[in-house]
Records
---
Amino acid sequence: MSVDLSIKFAGIKFENPFTLAASPCTDNAQMVARAFDAGWAAAVLKTTSVEEEVVELVYPMMAGLDFDDKKVIGLQNIDLISERHIDQVEKDVRELKKAYPKKVVGASIMGQKKEHWQSLVRRLEAAGVDFIECSFSCPHGMPERGMGSTIGQNAELTERTARWVKEAARRTPVSIKVTPLVPDLPHIAHAVQKSGADAITAINTVKCLIGVDIDNFVPYPTVNGKSSYGGYSGAAIKPISLRCVAEIAKAVDMPISATGGITTWRDAVEFLLCGARNLQVCTAVMKHGFRIIEDLTDGLSVYLEDKGMSSVEELVGLALPNIVEHSHLSREYKPVSKINLETCVKCDVCYIACQDGGHQAITLDEKRLPHVDEEKCVGCSMCASVCPVWECIQMVPR
Ligand SMILES: Cc1cc2nc3c(=O)[nH]c(=O)nc-3n(C[C@H](O)[C@H](O)[C@H](O)COP(=O)(O)O)c2cc1C
């Protein structure tokens, strides 16, 4: 069976859902052209601004969070918007649309006032851009100038600014990139919907401080002896972005482009199931290169075939009915831990977790094999979470 990976987002047909997010990966036409050749369906060019906006970057601007033996499970950046202003980006759009008419070219913009936003939109539209993304969400650097997440954290500013953009965009769809750093994201999503914008991109990076050098007391990334809060991205933020996408999908009927931690085809499936129609990737590409598109598209195709589905459209939102208010979860369901002693490697981690973080239901016998006392086990599943062996511990109904 052949599967169709194409999907419509904001009225535009994408050959597959995979899009490069606004970032260093999309900061010039040559890089985007290489990504298109590798198989990416679309790219959002790095956020640009009017010529008079001063953009001065600092270096180093990146610091990774390593955990156990894994490098960069999360990434902090103190990058700003692009140093390349609209005059260069409009040329990139023209060049890319000419060379790749079937690929989707989006462009991200940020302005200080109405005239900036509207002039950016008009110039990009004249250059032939397919869609415009507005960053109301950069958590560092830009808020100091009243830009970025300063807008996205306020529903009125969000609605007003998005209206300006929509007013100027005569035929180009507009997506508003929102920040997770708000107490009530559905409230912001409603503001976006009221503005008339066509779509929502969720989320931008999460404001963070990734670590401190314990010898000289300066946090990372260290710029000549000082540091600053930055934006956190990569696999570590996936649970936050997945929650945000699901919350928005349940709150408003708008197409969602997901970004935040998408690294593997499994992540891609999860975001589609939670209501996304488009998937943007940045950190995984910065770490592994444009070539990951092959794993993403192959994995998604094989998954759809295994499920007997012929199109990626069929996946969108399937998990949403299964996300309910906490009070609606069953109080009658009482699972219990079941350990497969055939595959147990006697590492003790389930025993330790249950003794010191659970209900002391697991004991070890003289061969160091773990056994569950069903009377004491409440079914919390911490043992299954820490067990290093695939499906050795499962939570089953009593
Ligand atoms: C170094 C760097 C620069 C970025 N620059 C921008 C930007 O200019 N505009 C924007 O909207 N998002 C920017 N982002 C955020 C990404 O587009 C993306 O939303 C975020 O990194 C989450 O996706 P990821 O976990 O796949 O990286 C940047 C991210 C990184 C790591």
Note: The chain has twelve helices and 18 strands.
---
Amino acid sequence: MNLMEAITKRRSIRNYAPTLIPREILDEILEAARLAPSGGNGQNCCYGVVTDEHMKRKLAQAAGGQMWIAEAPVVIAFCANIEYNTANLPEDDFSLAVNRLRYGREMLDYLSGCKDKRGLGIMWANACPLIPGTHITLAATNHGLDTCWIGYLDVAKAGEILSLPSNMACFYLMPLGYAAVEPKKKSTRKPVEEVVFYDKWEAR
Ligand SMILES: Cc1cc2nc3c(=O)[nH]c(=O)nc-3n(C[C@H](O)[C@H](O)[C@H](O)COP(=O)(O)O)c2cc1C
């Protein structure tokens, strides 16, 4: 399967067969995540591979009771370090400069004063799993496997279930396995004219 075929074929699956995933395929999928790019090559993402039935069910409960997640033979738990805090950075820190350009100095100063350091760390690290996770979805599709992003998650509860240390949080889950039933149709996307513009916005 070439890359565009995998991109086109991937869709969210919400029912899974109990069929196990061959170890070498799982290893390749995790390698695809490990090779993902990250801001400043920070590589701030870790991948929990959850196969224990009881733990999968508890995670599914933490995901608002989306119990079908636990049907998959593997649930990936996307975790990241949450210690990043702009208040602790020297004035010449590169990420501080980047974030000031992105969010504005006023917002950065406001966030630096926020007392909820844990909540702040979670907010800053929220995007870390997105590119590795995308690599996983496509590598999985390449092997005839299915996935679904799970962002509806009680982050604190998931961290407890996974026994994460206090400087880590679990941001997303992703069931990984073989669809029990193929969905009838793919979800639709906006037409290209609505989502692409060339040079200036008004030229759309
Ligand atoms: C960041 C993110 C979080 C998501 N969270 C959930 C979720 O908690 N539960 C769920 O059933 N689907 C979830 N989805 C799947 C989306 O609903 C799905 O990707 C979208 O409807 C498009 O469908 P497709 O993936 O089949 O193309 C999530 C997707 C993303 C990208």
Note: The first helix runs from residue 3 to 9.
